[in-house]
# Entry
Amino acid sequence: MDRDDDLVHLLVAYQAGELAAFERLYATLAGELHRYFLAQDATGAAAQDLVQDTFLEIHRSRHTYLPPLPVRPWVFGIARHVLGRHRRTAWRRTRHEDRAEAAAAAAAPAAPAIETRDLADALARLPASRREAWVLHHVHGLSFQQIAERFRIGVGAAKLRSSRAMRALRAALGVDPGMDPERRETRDG
Amino acid sequence: MADRPMIPPGLLSAVESDLKPVRPLASPARRALALLPLGLALLIAIPAFWGWRSNFSALGPAVAWGLSGLQALAGLLIVGAALREAIPGRELSRPALAATVGAALALFAGLTFVTERVAPAVVPPGVWVRFAWECFWMAAASSVPILAAAAWLAARALPTRPAVAGAVYGLGAGLIADAGVRLFCWVSAPAHVLVAHGGAILFLAAAGAGAATVVERVKGRRG
# Structure
């Protein structure tokens, strides 16, 4: 089933709307197309995606096949077109990502410095008991039980100190208090 | 049958959902032939609208109508080559492309020198730039219908090298439009014809390349 005459008949049947003809075309040509894309430096998964894209483009452009011309030059012409489009898209995406990274790198030193300073200022304004509870829980990872034992207070009080510290910090940094995970933690215990 | 590759379900459903019978495009030659009435209309309408060249009778019907008809025919053949270029797998080879462009430019230059030999006429002093500008824009503007029609026919196919296909149909459309302008412009000095009329033809080739590229990008984004 790979003589050009057979492929011509299949493609004519496919143009007439026969799904079975498409399935046989796929069975005959998918392997060849996969090898073609691998030879063009596509990786395995990318080559498989390109094969699918090619058959999708074949489907959209099936009216451009002119019987009884040979089928393979038409199919591989579409494959080259799909590959070119894929490469242009990849090139544009890479360029866009490079620009975004460059912009982020240029902006990086300034933005976190301001946030860090704001956070440090907000922490400094907290009462010491609340600040320590918050730092021990969120920075050092201690449980509220451990914090309670360290300060010889109840677990509920430890949660309350940390929760109030979190609320004050969010308010100072302009963060929506509705998104406060501390409150959920406190409610959940 | 067992070792046949399986069609991915997404692809199969996309094909199944849109599997209506389609009619194959007509051959590039037949589709180019469909532009013949438009080409003939331009050939007559341009001088009929702007006025016939004052030395029309000095040229005689063979040089006036004959050579313009030859140029328009060549333009139509070149549009046909562009429509062939727009079919996947039927792209023009580099030698064929070079031969097509070379033959078009050689024909245009040849007709220019023949016309100048039969009825020499130079641009009056002081209006060289104005005459060149007028002829340039007249040829460019007159070609819009044939250029648009050729672009539409090419876009119905799948030009894998849209810039090439567009440049070639732009060249053809330019030759067809200039065949009509040639019956209006009485100047036969090669400097004027090659710069103003030839410049318009090259401009149209560039415009066709740009238009085809844009059309294919839009088609690609729409999927």
Q: What stands out?
A: The mean pLDDT of chain B is 94. The radius of gyration of chain B is 21 Å. Residues 190-222 of chain B form the longest helix (33 residues). Chain B has nine helices and no strands.
